[in-house]
Design brief:
- There is one protein chain.
- The chain has about 140 residues and is an alpha+beta fold.
- The chain contains 3 helices and 6 strands, in the order ααβββββαβ.
Amino acid sequence: MIRRRAALAVLPLLLSPLARAAEAGDRISTETRVQLQAAMQLQIDRSTVAGSYPVVDLGTGRLRNLHPAAGHPMMLRLGEAFVLCADFRDDAGVPVNVDFYLARRQGRFAVFQVEIANRGPLDALLKSGVARMLE
């Protein structure tokens, strides 16, 4: 009985490096996917004002209200960071891509950058192989 308890206590320590090793490639665990999605949703919730996700159009200086339309399963790896994409719509119903860049921080994921309707640089990173689509 004591051996069994000891083995069960050590099991998470043994599996953690294996899980991280499995995530080093183009696959990540379901648990990590859920954590990433939750971190993105938390960022959206924290930034929502009166039901909208406000952004400033830096070209015109106008405030633009975005509304979450759908998250999608597209996830990318960018070195040790991840990129998750979500579809938003503006007040006129025009679709807007929003990309959330996340990294691990103290065992959790945190959003460190958000790109609004700026997919070009991410596409270039994908084409160059710096960013990779996750399976």
